[in-house]
Amino acid sequence: MAVITISRGSYSKGREVAKAVARRLDYECVAREVFVRASEQFNIPEVKFAKAIHDAPSIFDRLTYGREKFIAYFRSALLQRLQRDNVVYHGLAGHFFVKGVAHALKVRIIADFDERVRTEMTREGLTAETAAEALRKDDEERRKWSQAVYGIDTTDPSLYDLVIHVGKIGVEGAVDIICLTAGFKAFQTTFESQKALDELVMAASVKATLIELKPDIEVMAKDGNVIIGTRSTLIQHPEVATEMEAIAKSVSGVKSVQIRQSHLVSWTD
Fold it and tell me: Which of 10, 81, 206, 266 is the most buried (most CB within 10 A)?
């Protein structure tokens, strides 16, 4: 089957769409659970993850390698959840982490601004002017977040397989389109696409495990072989390289580890 990621703005009915899609397809629906998983797995209080969302990008200016650590922990937790297949994820930049995974259906839900304002007015008891100002601020913070943390603009339609305007077709119409598309052959899990996801999981797990020891790394995995690229030299600290290799090999499925003096790693180096 497929993995479905749903990107949404506040009060755009994206959460409703995600839950309805999961019910119809009998998929697991996850969002906040990823933060819980990350906080438990890496012993970081969930409140820090939540604070990072609301304070970004400024929070990263106050933390050493804050951006790298946050992304490493979150990516690892999210990809492990998506690895199970038959999952609908709605929330923080899920589409960003599944590049190259053919069975990942990436969806963006949008809604009319005026309709979003009316919804916020009703739910929060705000005036039209206050609700509109709050939404504009929230939209701008989300854009700043994605640019600062991931280097992307989540409103860019080229990042998605589907962009759906719920104001015109409603929640049920959006669910119909997503479920129909998820059934297309292009989004069915194959051996190759699952292998691509498994390798992303392995690379993410290795990086998350090493991030406290060596934050300035990039990791790739292929067929159980792992390449770790680092900006800084390890010639004068061979014990660090030895420790990194031992830790990486402790990750399930890792067969071999190479450490290279380069932040950009590839299999053609």
Answer: 206
pLDDT digits (tens, 9 = 90+) for 30-87: 887 777 776 776 666 766 666 655 555 555 555 555 667 777 888 898 899 899 889 9
Strands of 9-120 (E only): list them.
28-30, 87-90, 104-110
Q: Which domains does the chain have, with CATH numbers?
A: 3-187 (3.40.50.300), 213-260 (no CATH)
Strand partners for 226: 221, 257
Q: Give burial (CB, 10 Å; 0-12/13-18/19+) of 244.
A: buried
* DSSP one-letter code for 234: -
> How many CB atoms lie under 10 A from the CB of residue 54?
9
Angle, helices 191-210/238-249, rounded to nearest 10 degrees: 140
| pTM for the whole structure | 0.83
